Automatic annotation (TrEMBL):
This is Pyridoxal phosphate homeostasis protein. It comes from Fodinibius salinus. PROSITE patterns: UPF0001 (PS01211). InterPro entries: Ala_racemase_N, PLP-binding_barrel, PyrdxlP_homeostasis. Residues 8-232 form the Alanine racemase N-terminal domain. Keywords: Pyridoxal phosphate. Coiled coil: none annotated. GO terms for molecular function: pyridoxal phosphate binding.
Length: 235
């Protein structure tokens, strides 16, 4: 699929504006993370060239390689995929956001490594909102423990929650609304855990198929791949 990436970004911004207008929201409240997983560096360069600043990847090694191609501060890099303790070392010196904290042991590992280089890493706690076993994220009941653990850390900040809805056909996207609403409700219910380095202002939810519903339900970070870079070829 060869499409003009800048044109895709324009159409996407239009989709975001329309959804915001419908929801009575300001598009400035929403950060668009371009998910470039499995896509070549040339695609990232093209998107960067037309003003896209936030990029997301779902594998630590791939993220590490792509981050290495850009100077510090040029791009904001987001890790959106599953974490593994032994892979955190590949990304911690450069990644700006990690969306997929599902256990306090990941926070401990990030803190350990970020403290050595005096960095602060921005994170989100991923909740399993779809209820499907194969989807990652922690259960809602684990959230207090993770937030309390984070309160004691100096090199990790929590900014909010992330959720991935069930994968449904584009015309059935209303089905995922309760999952996004649940994430927001969970956020509202845990505001009491907010401290200097724990805030719950951000909601990372919404992808190519379900971003309009996510915006209506309060998303502040969209993670969008296919609408920008086209379909991914799985080999
Ligand atoms: C791939 C991926 C996305 C983007 O999905 P699209 O359907 O391509 O928009 C968002 N979030 C995560 C965690 C992903 O792995």
């Amino acid at each position: 699929m060869s499409k003009d990436i800048c044109q895709n970004l324009d159409s996407l911004q239009q989709r975001i504006s329309n959804a915001c207008e419908k929801a009575g929201r300001n598009p400035d409240e929403i950060t668009l993370v371009a998910v470039s997983k499995m896509k070549p560096l040339s695609n990232i360069k093209e998107a960067f060239g037309c003003g896209q600043l936030h990029f997301g990847e779902n594998r630590a090694k791939e993220l590490q390689e792509k981050m290495g191609e850009y100077g510090e501060e040029e791009i904001q890099w987001h890790m959106v995929g599953n974490l593994q303790t032994n892979k955190i070392k590949y990304i911690v010196d450069r990644v700006n956001w990690i969306h997929s904290i599902s256990k306090s042991k990941y926070l401990r590992e990030i803190e350990k490594r970020a403290s050595r280089i005096d960095r602060v890493v921005n994170t989100l706690v991923q909740i399993n909102i779809s209820g499907e076993d194969q989807k990652s994220g922690c259960e809602a009941e684990q959230l207090p423990e993770i937030l309390e653990y984070a309160q004691g850390l100096d090199h990790v900040r929590i900014h909010g929650l992330m959720g991935m809805a069930s994968f449904v056909d584009p015309d059935e996207v209303e089905q995922v609304r309760p999952q996004f609403a649940m994430l927001r409700k969970l956020r509202d219910e845990h505001r009491k855990y907010e401290t200097e380095n724990v805030s719950l202002d951000e909601l990372s939810m919404g992808m190519t198929n379900d971003m309009e519903v996510a915006i209506e339900e309060g998303s502040t970070m969209l993670r969008v791949g296919r609408a920008i870079f086209g379909e991914r070829n799985y080999t």
